[in-house]
TrEMBL record:
One of its GO terms (molecular function) is O-acetyltransferase activity. Keywords: Acyltransferase, Cell membrane, Membrane, Transferase, Transmembrane, Transmembrane helix. The chain crosses the membrane at residues 9-28, 48-65, 77-97, 117-135, 147-166, 224-243, 285-305, 325-343. One of its GO terms (cellular component) is plasma membrane. It is a multi-pass membrane protein. Residues 6-339 form the Acyltransferase domain. It is found in: Cell membrane. This is Surface polysaccharide O-acyltransferase, integral membrane enzyme. GO terms for biological process: enterobacterial common antigen biosynthetic process. Belongs to the acyltransferase 3 family. The keyword Membrane applies. The lineage of its organism: Bacteria, Bacillati, Bacillota, Clostridia, Lachnospirales.
Amino acid sequence: MERKTYCDYLRVIATFAVVLLHVSASNWYSTDVNGLQWQAFNFYDSVVRWGVPVFLMISGALFLNREVPLKKIYGKYILRMVIAFYVWSLFYVIMTVETLENGIIYGIKTHMRALALGHYHMWFIIMIIGIYMCIPFYKRIVTDDFIMKYFLILSFIFFFMIPWTTKLLNDYVVGNNEQMAKLVGVVNSYVSNKNMQMVLGYSFYFVLGYFLDMIELKKKQRVIVYILGAIGFAFTVGVDLNLALKTQQPCGNYYGNFDVNIMLEAVCVHTLFKYREYKSEKFNSLIYMISGYTFGAYLIHVFFIEKFSSVLSFNALSFNPVVSVPVVSCAVLVCALLVSGILNHIPIIKKYCV
């Protein structure tokens, strides 16, 4: 299969997006929503929420474009994810061991629970394992153009549009209006009772990545995508800021991966990179190399965020957050990529852990 250069670029920029998100979110709860600090955190948090959806879109474009035997899915891809999950969960358990006040047994139970659940960013690994398990089903879906579009439309309606609309109604329309509250409740109840699990979840982005990779958008269509993306970015920043000021509490109601505004962000970024020209072979080769280190960088970046803050007091609050968030994020990403690069030169670790 011909290498998709734009996917390498997307993987690198999506990794940076996730790092920046976690850096800005690390002090998101502890600052005053009326101040510049929280507003800067909200801005950065809002404009990089497309990171995880784009990761899934990349995977969909790469996996659904080729035949991957079930044996290989389990023996190579899922096995790697399972091993990586437990190895890195153990790493974080060891790195976060503190003095035990309630005895050794309590401490052992606590850390065993942490090992089973993983560090907070490890949820992605569990989710992607589930996606990999379902690849044969997705492959059947995308082989029929009508079924694929039908699947995407149902997913969008029941997992994006309806919940997002009812959330907007709750935040801005319902208020003390009992009739409107009942109406919204009925809609939510109907959607819940339909139990549309088949079209719910991250599978939408996985299939969407394949769909967008296969089709060619004309220039006018791309312009529309960029306009909608800009609206999505502005919506995420503005509405969450508005609700935070309204409630005087940090608000991330519209940060979710299944909010329409975030989907618009993800499609916009994906389209922007897909339709660029990548003429520099040297730079493409560099991005290709860095792209190979991004999985390991994702796994270890939280370690650097936490240690920079606890040991060096270097975090998003160290100076003006407008500057500190991207500076700390760049430092974390560079360190994470360097460590990942080293680990990728150790055969067994490269094969199973990064």
